[in-house]
Amino acid sequence: MEYRLLGNSGLRVSELFLGTMAYGYPDGGLTEADARRVLDRYADAGGNVIDTANFYGDGNSERVVGELLAGRRERFVLATKYTVTRDATDPNAAGNHRKNLVPSLEESLRRLRTDYIDVYWVHIWDRHTPLAETMRALDDAVRAGKVRYIGISDAPAWIVAQANTLADWRGWTPFAGLQAPYSLLRRDIERELLPMAEAFGLTVAAWGPLGHGALARPPVPAGAASPDDPESPVTVVVREVAGELGASPAQVALAWTRTRSRAVHPLTGPRTVEELDDTLSALDLTLPADAIERLETATGFAPGFPTDFITEVEPSVFGDMSGRVLAR
């Protein structure tokens, strides 16, 4: 396992982030014993980022994580999130305003059995709370020593850019990371979010890198696919490339998420040690250029306006020498 810096901070974070969304769910989730085996294997491999949220399993994920980290808390970069409602009947029990942030943080600290959160994520953009209120409240939590770094998940690029610009102007703590879905089946962040994150120096935690399991499934036997649910051209190519490289489909899909930007850290939630080992092997897989081209062609992704337009007209706008100007 190698490490990179979280955003523009000095915090060292592992290449792979461990998601714990399934921890603590009574039906279909991981038992505490299974979760411990996965987390221990992740730690043995050098992984150090544990990601949860206050509403996963109605708080049970945080409780399980707190139990699993007992006696070794300092070895990990512990991350959790707030925004989602704590009481559906109370309009102020959800959102990114101060009244929800403060009790959400206190509850998470108790469940996680810790005095501070390493990375506190805004879980989703709240259209009704001014950014200044959110950023100042988060900065207060940092200054109080209850949070070390902050990040934001599931928000437009312009919101993140505005938030960090505001933080810079006012001397507040800026976002160091961004969480967003990213996979061969969902490349939307390449339009605005990923370029924005690179410009601001943000770490990108890519959730759903396996397309919620679709990119890791074995091939469908001939004749078994339903006409109403045919195999995706992307999954077909993923399996072809995997066969050629002697890798698993999951390894190919995960390796691809790391090809376009060093800012990207896959965020996965393996349910077994075997699944985790398969995931860890993706860190050592280098995809050939022709394989990357085949995979991306299969997605049919286009960046759209303005990126494609600017790329098309750049030679005529900037002259014959434009292609010889190197980016920083």
Automatic annotation (TrEMBL):
Gene3D superfamilies cross-referenced by the UniProt entry: NADP-dependent oxidoreductase domain
Domain NADP-dependent oxidoreductase stretches: 16-297
UniProt key word Oxidoreductase: yes
Keywords: Oxidoreductase
InterPro entries per UniProt: AKR_Detox_Biosynth (IPR050523), NAD(P)_OxRdtase_dom_sf (IPR036812), NADP_OxRdtase_dom (IPR023210)
Domain of life: Bacteria
Name by which UniProt lists this protein: Aldo/keto reductase
Organism field: Actinomadura rugatobispora
Lineage: Bacteria, Bacillati, Actinomycetota, Actinomycetes, Streptosporangiales
